[in-house]
Amino acid sequence: MAQEDRLPPPGAAVATPAGGDASADTDAAGAGPAEGPDRFGPVLVVEDVDKRYVTRRGLRTTSIHAVRGVSLELHRGRVTALVGQSGSGKSTIARLVTGVERPTSGRVRFRPDPAAAGAPDPGPEGEIRVDRLRGRPLREYRRHVQMVFQDPFSALNPTRTVAYALSRPLVNYRGLRGAAVRDRAAELLEAVGLAPAGQFLDKLPHQLSGGQRQRVVIARALAPEPQVLVADEPISMLDVSIRAEILDLLGALVRRQRLAMLYITHDLLSARVLADEVLVLREGTVVERGATLEVIGAARHDYTRLLLDAIPTPFAGEPRPA
Ligand SMILES: Nc1ncnc2c1ncn2[C@@H]1O[C@H](COP(=O)(O)OP(=O)(O)OP(=O)(O)O)[C@@H](O)[C@H]1O
Ligand SMILES: [Mg+2]
Question: Taking a C-beta distance cutoff of 8 angstroms, is the pair 74, 85 a contact?
């Protein structure tokens, strides 16, 4: 197990499995820009992180070792999927990556693209140590690493319009004012497939379908022009019929805007559609990792095979991969 938890060398993650009919599948997986290694290297590096939660109830103290020695890299224009059962530590890793929580040990490094719009100054080291950030620099960091959550309804204030939801990050992070806010909000809506935007700007969340709401949540996450998107089960509360199109949208945004994405799911098949690389997490430990088609096509670990067998296909009519 331990030997499978090594960080693969850069570029290894997008290797295509040798032989077979992988080329057709590569297209299906949207296997990303075949431009070779990322010019700047990974945008985010998680290095040997551990997270323990200590809870006290009365006199009893319990410690939960939620994440154990996890390492991963996120690259621009690529999707890395984190797959595992409930309680395996996926959302904990998301919180460490977004700086909401600090690891008990290990490092989280952010290496922003200096050429990107509004990129933060990484300082002389060329990187920001996320696991050490506090206060203002931490708030600033969170702008660059945005989350998309599972439930698009609770993510939006039911009493506020779509235009308002999008205006907040545009005003706070991009410094836009007046008509420019609404213009940019309209552009964002069109970028997530809500066109013409005029039909959506003044709607309230309950006037939208679940899929449309999740598109608004995605547009809001894009508003600060982040470098990394962390999507924690972004389709699991959506109707089966629209899951594939939301995954397509996320994949297209990653490629088009050169975003790095951490896609969290308990469902390996959705990872197959979207991700270039998959990490399988069990009880806080990475038990398998590699190029998506390799992991799914030739799952070595019993647990990975269990995940494959346990799930109903989320895409009606799509046959389960052999
Ligand atoms: N704030 C916390 N305090 C104590 N324990 C926690 C806390 N957050 C998470 N845990 C525990 O850490 C483990 C991992 O939780 P986590 O939420 O990361 O799992 P997950 O893989 O996201 O699960 P799910 O698929 O259900 O969302 C679980 O055992 C959980 O109970
Ligand atoms: Mg979770």
Answer: no
How far apart (Å, rounded) are the C-alpha atoms in residues 123 and 125? 5
The residue extents of the domains of the chain are 63-151+229-310
* Cα→Cα distances 127→78, 133, 172, 284, Å: 20, 12, 24, 26
* Ligand 2 centroid distance, CA of 4 (Å): 23
pTM: 0.84
Ligand 2 centre to CA of 231 (Å) is 11
Q: 63-151+229-310: which CATH architecture?
A: 3-Layer(aba) Sandwich (3.40)
Alpha-carbon gap, residue 300 to 287, rounded angstroms: 9
Other CB atoms within 10 A of residue 314 CB = 18
Among protein residues, the one with the nearest Cα to ligand 1's atom 28 is: 87
How does pLDDT run across 85-103, given as a tens digit for each residue? 999 999 999 999 999 999 9
Nearest partner of 190 among 256, 137, 121, judged by Cα? 256
Grade residue 40 by pLDDT with cuts at 50, 70 and 90: low
Nearest atom in ligand 1 to 92's CA? 18
